[in-house]
Amino acid sequence: MTQATVSPARRTEAAAQLRRGRILRTVRSILRHLLLTLLAAIWLVPILWLLVTSFSTDRGINVRRFFPASYTVSNYINILFHPDSVAQFPRWFTNTLVVACFNCVISTCFVLMVAYALSCCRFKGRKLLQNLSVIVNLFPGVLAMIAVYFVLKYLNLTNSYAGLIMVYAGSSGLGYLICKGFFDTIPISLREAAKLDGASDARVFFQVVLPMSRPILVYTIISSFMVPWTDFVMAKMILNSGLSADWTVAIGLYNMLQKTLINNYFALFCAGGVLVSIPISILFVIMQKFYVEGITSGADKG
Amino acid sequence: MAEMVLTPPLRADGREPNFLQKFGHAFVHGDIFTKLSLVVWGLGYIGHGQLIKALLVTLVQGLGLYFLGTSGIPALKKFGTLGTVQMEMQFNPLTLKNEVNNYDNSFAILLLSVIALVVIVTLIAAAMLVVQSNYALQAQKAAGKKPNNFRQDITLYLNEKFYVTLLTLPVLGVVVFTIVPLFILIAVAFTNYDQQHMPPAALFTWVGLANFAALFGGQSLTVTFNYAFGRVLGWTLVWAFFATFTTFFGGVFLAMLINNKKTKCQKLWRTLFMVTIAVPQFVTLLLVRNFFSDAGIFNTLMSNAGVTDFLKTIGLLGQNMNHIPFLTDQHWAKFMIVLINVWVGVPYQMIIATGVLMNIPSDMLEASTIDGASPWQSFIHIKLPYLFSVQGPALVTDFVKNVNNFNVIYLLTQDVYITKDQALASSSAKEVDLLVTWLFRLTQEQYNYKMAAVIGIMVFIICAVFTLVCFRFLNKKEATFS
Predict the structure, then answer these.
(1) In this complex, is the C-beta atom of B283 within 8 Å of any C-beta atom belonging to chain A?
(2) Out of A117, A185, B204, B404, which could bridge B193 as a Cys pair, Cβ 3.0 to 4.6 Å?
(3) Closest of B173, B133, B215 to residue B458, by C-alpha
(4) CB-closest option in A201, A250, A284 to B282
(5) pTM of the model
(6) CATH 1.10.3720.10 is right for the domain spanning B225-292+327-481
(7) Which CATH number fits domain A83-301: 1.10.3720.10, 3.90.1530.10, 3.40.50.2300, 1.10.1740.10?
(8) Predicted confidence (pLDDT) at residue B246 exceeds the cutoff of 70
(9) Taking the mean position of all CA atoms in its chain, how far away is CA A111?
């Protein structure tokens, strides 16, 4: 009945409006995706430049063209198998790996210990400790670093990996916040039940809380493992002997870009940069997954 | 009866007695062993039948006292002057050679004194604890209970006192690697430790507030710290403000763009932007700085595209320039640094904003759509306030982090940006320096530790005041919302 009362003219008008709306939506969608493509391109240009330059046949920076004239894998072969006095990538890689492993073990233990104590144990001075840690965190890291350098120099620990590991891991206990946030969401009833069954506080920590904290455990392990790979300042300050074989990846690669070296080593720098990025990206992706899992599963429990 | 004496009385105001009162009560009412344990920790435990514990605590006490006796106290004696004997070559008639005399090392004196003070405070506090613990043992005995044996003590540290076991090592690490160095640096701010007074060859000593006066009053003769401090502080605050807000809003914008229902392949877009995080920051920053260098690839591209000439005609570029000074002119450099930081920071902020936006209660958004709110209105009135309320504290900490953002500034400008301002150059500062990079280069180029320490203290004061004020404001706001 109503159909019949609507005039044909009005019907075509409505159809046109519908069509216009659909066109508008398509245009908007295209614009939205164009904008995203443009942004993604901006964000990827430097990465692309890193990648193509690492395959370039020019040893220095090619300032004339973005893509190299010809491609080769010799940069990778050189940096991996033909170390010279400047580029000793395999040595740097092993050095960094050693430091990273030690730092990973110590830092993870410290972070877990502090987080558990401040989250699950009740004792006098708990609030005080937390407030103190906030205040200490406000001091600029660079400032403390200079003083730490003098202490290490006095103890003859500069230019040693022991010193570097101590600096990385020593105050790692301060970074307990994320982990504590996770422990806070584990129901108290679980811990109490275990205790009623006669488990000691230590057993509750190892057999109840830790197995439930896999996401945050993985996150803590990976993030502390990544510190020596990405840190630049501390390593530069402490490993200052000028002996290339002693360096970590970060200082080694930085050194390749000195004014006198850059024209011979820029392509090698790029190859090195890509090589470091590969394991870090993999770890980063894993960490990201576990981090999100850690946060959301925590929310579920809470 | 025994109970009456053995538990310390409540205070007049009915609250628990504090640490000192408990100690006083324990010491006054303790038996001979409890009293002796203040001096030799082990004696009390021997008297109360805990031999292994007695051995352990006496060992710790012995180590502490040994350090104080051999190096701590001698250093503390010279703490007032920080040493008086300069390093010299002296003729030794026994070996017939020139030898270094027994000189004072000011830095060693300062370091050992700080450590000695920490050790003394710890020993005193520990002694008080030992007395209290012995008093508790005495009370147990009086009540007819047997004192714990060593195994039971260990069980205690895995149960009620598990936190002690957990916290000892990390706290020790923080004290040694953060707190002691901080004390030393605070002390250095009140000395004349610089290139002319470098131990071990020379001595340095206390100068009171002279360094702070140099920073604010500027009556020092050759170096114009006063001027440099003003310039650098100004840029640090401007930078921290822009760096924090550009990345925050950039991240929110990108997250909303990607998470919109009409966007296809959301996961792909997110991954593309996250690729930049996966490459270590020092690699990308060093790369970008070469990308934008004066004779670099980007300048070539700009010149080929005619942008360089266009900038000349509209007057943004001097007529005699044949390149755009992206990182070598102060205004361009400041602009580029903020821009490059957007590139570095937005993907991080996007991840965080994605998480927060997903948690917005959907009924709120639905209700607003039913009421006829446009997407823009729902962004301004619902999403943005929600983001601010959740992200408020994070913004404050981000601001502080940016004040201390060493990497971005140092890696982009070191060896690239050269200041033309003589007054800044003479104090090792640049227009693009943050306070932290400036103090770092003061120590590296001028060995001017005294001023670096003063600047470090200023950074701390700025960050602390900012954080306190913001959190107070945020807390108040939260209270009005709920």
Answers:
(1) yes
(2) B204
(3) B215
(4) A250
(5) 0.81
(6) yes
(7) 1.10.3720.10
(8) yes
(9) 17
